[in-house]
Design goal:
alpha/beta; 42% helix
Length: 106
């Protein structure tokens, strides 16, 4: 049995946030991650570190949330950067062609 989906946030020094995602990120759970990102975006962060070390599954809906959030942060002059990555998530993000853009701020 796969672990339940969850997100968690931690505010670090200044306006830096860490968002941790656990379990399966898919069509059913992507709105919950979007709600987490919306809360973080409302605080006007300078950087969001994304911890996907415990992410077991990722589909296109989850990728859309990640890419959309990265763009929203860039519009605010902030960055979304992957700070931890499971092998499963890395493979999907690489095949989708977005891994590099999420690992390195533009």
């Amino acid at each position: 049995m796969q672990p339940a989906f969850s997100t968690g946030t931690e505010r670090r020094e200044g306006e830096v946030w860490v968002v941790r995602v656990t379990g399966e990120l898919d069509m059913a759970t992507a709105p919950r991650l979007q709600a987490t990102f919306d809360e973080v975006l409302a605080s006007a962060p300078t950087n969001v570190l994304l911890d996907l070390q415990q992410l077991d599954f990722l589909d296109s809906t989850g990728i859309t949330v990640l890419v959309r959030t990265r763009r929203q942060l860039e519009e605010q002059g902030a960055h979304l950067t992957i700070d931890g990555l499971s092998a499963a998530a890395a493979k999907v993000l690489e095949v989708a062609g977005v891994l590099d853009s999420l690992q390195h701020p533009r």
